[in-house]
Amino acid sequence: MGAEMGITADATSNGGTWRVRIRSSAGDVLGAGILLGSETVLTCAHVIPDDGLPVPATEVLVELVEVHEARPVPARVADGCWVPQRSDGCGDVALLRLGRPQPAEHAAPLYRLPPVLGRPVWMGGFPKGLDNGHYLRAKTAGRVGPRAEWVGLDPKSPRDVVRKGFSGAGVEDEATRYVIGMVVSRYDDPVDVPSAERLSVSYMIPVETIVRHLPVVHRWVRGDPGVDRPLVSPLTTGVQDIGFAQRLAVWLRREPLTGRPGITDVETVVIEDDDHARYEALSRAITLADRELSGGGPDEAVSAAPHGTVPPLGSVDLAIDVTKRTDTEVALRVADRMDLRSPGDTSPLSRVRANAVPLTIVAVGVDRARDPEALVGFMKLLADRGSRLLLVFRDPHSSGLRLAERLFRPEAARIDAWLDELAGRVALAADREHETAERGARRSSLSDAEDATALRINLTRLRSDPELRSHRIVAKLAAFEHSVRTVAERAEETLRVIDAQQPAVQELKWQLVSYTAMLGTKAESERAELIPLHRAAVRLLAEVPCDLPEARRAVDRFVAAVHTPPEGSRHDGPDGWDGLRPHRLPRRGPGPDQRPGFCSECGRRPLPAAPDPAPPPAGTGVLASESTATTARARRRDVARKFTVRPAGEGLLDLPRVELPSLRDLVMDDPHPPSRGQTCGWEGCDEIVGAPYAGQSALSRGYCPRCRHPFDFTPRLSPGDLLGDQYRVIGCVGYGGLGWVYLAEDTQLDDQPVAIKGLINNEDEAALRTAVEERRYLTMLDHPGIVRIINYVTQPDPATTAR
To answer: Which InterPro entries does the record cross-reference, listed alphabetically (predicted)?
Structure first.
């Protein structure tokens, strides 16, 4: 196996003899596995064929591919060691019991090693065509997958992505040769993504998560657990200090701070001895964040936890109770957790100084250590080596806390530069968000989703924060930076979706427009049924981004309904059809209507079978053998007898001549806005203003009672105003639900009369979006019964100079 990649067997841990190939009884390769002890193999549950039983009883063949002359061994799922993938995606691990023992020296060295970012690893599997094995190299890439159970593996090259035959393969740390996880899955971008941008990632389940799902595995695992026993919570009580629990979850959820020289990612908290609620919240957060303590099971503690109090899985790499410990003892705990090594000097402090330590560490009881100030100095070393630190003190007046606040205080110039950088990024995010709004995108439906306006407000607050010159500002700025990135990425994704959807949406709109023109040919009763379907399709197509599948179904329903005649109508063609050649509807979607009683080609309802003709009454003189042509001539003679042709114009009714009023007579002398009121709309305010109140008449001008923004619903255009250097306003003639309607003259077309529509409330963003969408639709329509838009211009508001 190793020879195929130029890697000798001796270069891997234990010669790689723990690597297992799993075949079906028919000899097909199913996947890979890891030998544990002498009688057990670890693999993914989905590798074992499903035989319909709760626990598969299928026998498979296990082969130790790196052991010379090893024979296949039959194996089955071990009792109590089957954890299939759950509904939330977690799990997917299993242990196989071998039919006969194997030499224990071939077993794998499982190790609890934190899967920090950028750790080089390799893995060997058995893809199709390479039954003898194939190696791939990658680097660990952070928490992913269901509940963040998995760890991403970025391939060293595009070819180094796992494929079928790698599931269950051990993931080996390149530096220590320890097995730190097991391959479980992969991800590939859709084929429509350009090849140069296409993403392919492999995933592994870390050893600690495997132990959580299968506790029996711990007997084969080396390395200390990530959480000291005194800090483990039984998770039997509820969260009492919810605010503190949410603060901890936010800090743990945030990605490590990188690229900020001179700024350390350190947070200090004080939990006094009698503050049991806060201490339990801390212990609970540590337990839920540890992979081995909270990686699987029924997760009642997670589902019952208050909103925002559950940290991501794997967000704590090491939690230490440092009470009565020296800095050397704590350094040894850190060095062993990372398996740090240094040439020459093997003391714990030297091992830490010689390596990067990109861990998230929680140290509890710093001021209760043997030498608190020395321990704080060691924590400064860890922070400088790349660690994120949460330092917990028990006394708010301790000298260790004062030293920590002084050591970790960032330089004022660096914080100011960070704030200036964030201000620039907020401006860019605002521009992208504004672009999405201009293109009609609706704001996120999440009530707690931030936008650019909230970012500006929070940035102003940060500049005047009382803790601006303390180390605590770092966590606030890092959290704010995450919010800025989220808003910008959301806007970018929205624009990307809009661009991708535009061709399909435009096609559906044209299809809808073409069938909308047929509404004029329908009877009033038919239109009453069709208009709701049309409105539903218009509403869905107006949403940005658009729900394309639902919009396509809505258009299909409208098109099919336009083609469907009302109940009881007849077709004159043969077999109950209209005599036209059967045709397919111009539709997109699942195809013609397949409901019983509908044509599979055109979607129309067939007519009921015509009743058998009744025998002619006696004495009619019509013989059964009379030809069809003779009968038709007789019918035409009967019809002709009912009509008398008179000279042209004789007997016609004279209609009175109606004089149309002058258009100028329609101009309102004293236009008043509608008395039902309007939405304020200023920065999203939904208060109704300008409506009658307590028997008083409606106000055309005033102030919003909620946001205190002024409103003015009087017409913005006055007689004589020249709009767009082309249209001279004559006056206001009426109003609709959202806008004033003005009569004007086109000065460039011999004073041709035109109608102009403008908003009643220019501050209402929802009304503005509706007007823009209405303009888009009406410009696509061309029908005698629909008003046609001939131009669109903007005009400065004389009151605010805004456009």
So the answer is: Kinase-like_dom_sf, Peptidase_S1_PA, PknG_rubred, Prot_kinase_dom
